[in-house]
Amino acid sequence: MKNRKMKKENNWSNYLFEFISVFFAVVFAFALNNWNDNQKDSHSENKILIEIANGLEKDLEDIKLNVLGHNQGNSACNYFKKVFTGNEFEPDPIVYHYLNLTRDFISIQNTAGYETLKSKGLELIQNDSLRLNIISIYEYDYNILKNFEENYFEMQFQENYFKEINEALASNFEFDNSGNITGIDLPLNIQKNKKKKLLLYLWKIQTNRNFILRYYSEIEKKTLNLIVRIEKALKQG
User: Fold this and answer.
1) CA pair distance 75, 210, nearest whole angstrom
2) Residue 181: which of 101, 95, 96 has the closest Cα?
3) Where are the alpha helices (DSSP H) in 86-156?
4) Crossing angle of helices 2-85 and 94-101, rounded to 10°
5) What is residue 184's three-state secondary structure?
6) CB neighbours (10 Å) of residue 216?
């Protein structure tokens, strides 16, 4: 009887040991699997953040080019104000200002990194504030900028103003034998009311260019700030 009792106790001890061993093996495997998943998510997050940051750097280049273009457009307005009013102006090549006067721009945004993030799930970015910052700039700020540049009627300078301005200037342009513009014959023979209308066009062009330049300034600050935040997150990761 004593031997049977000891045998049963040994069996229970073995069962308990096996149960504990299996339990800890399962827990360890589960923890290891979670750790591997977290490592994969962290790697994916960093990879996408790098891609987004690189895209934002390219966006800054496009922003700077468009800002330069709008500033050149403003300079062209100042130049032609003097042409229309008969005031003295700098002897700059008139073709340079003529090309810039009603030039439109498009907004190019590098969204590949953000599109990858959306396809994998926005929750991949663990920092809530950073995730909202990224969503805000792509879904809100960039969309508004693109609509201003490409769809807002007031900003379509070529479509709205080029034809009438060109009609007022074309007969006074001077050309060489190759057909290249070499200058303009002044003063312009424009009726007073027509001149006022043209000056009003220049005012509208400048007003709208200055409006979007202010928005570009805000977008540039937000883009730079987001790049800094991403770089900080990558260092911490």
Assistant:
1) 12
2) 95
3) 94-101, 112-120, 128-136, 142-150
4) 130
5) strand
6) 19
- How far apart CA 148 and CA 140 sit, in angstroms, is 12
pLDDT attached to residue 31: 43
pLDDT, the chain, mean: 86
Contacts of residue 197, defined as CB under 8 A and 6 or more positions apart, other chains included, come to: 164
| Residue pair 128/69 in contact by the 8 Å Cβ criterion | no
With H, G, I as helix, E, B as strand and everything else as coil, classify residue 185: coil
Count of CA atoms in the C-beta half-sphere (13 A) of 199: 13
Residue type, 164: E
Task: Please state the pTM of the whole predicted model.
Answer: 0.81
Length of the chain: 237
d(Cα 237, Cα 234) in Å, to the nearest integer? 5
- Measure the CA–CA gap between 75 and 81, rounded to whole angstroms: 10
**Measured in whole angstroms, how far is the alpha carbon of residue 71 from the centre of its chain?**
19
Percent of all residues in the chain with a pLDDT value above 70, rounded to a whole number? 81
pLDDT tens-digit profile of 6-49? Answer: 555 555 555 555 655 554 444 444 444 443 444 445 688 999 99
CA distances from 70 to 18, 117, 133, 206, 210 (A): 77, 33, 27, 9, 8
Q: Rounded CA gap, 227 and 108, in Å?
A: 18
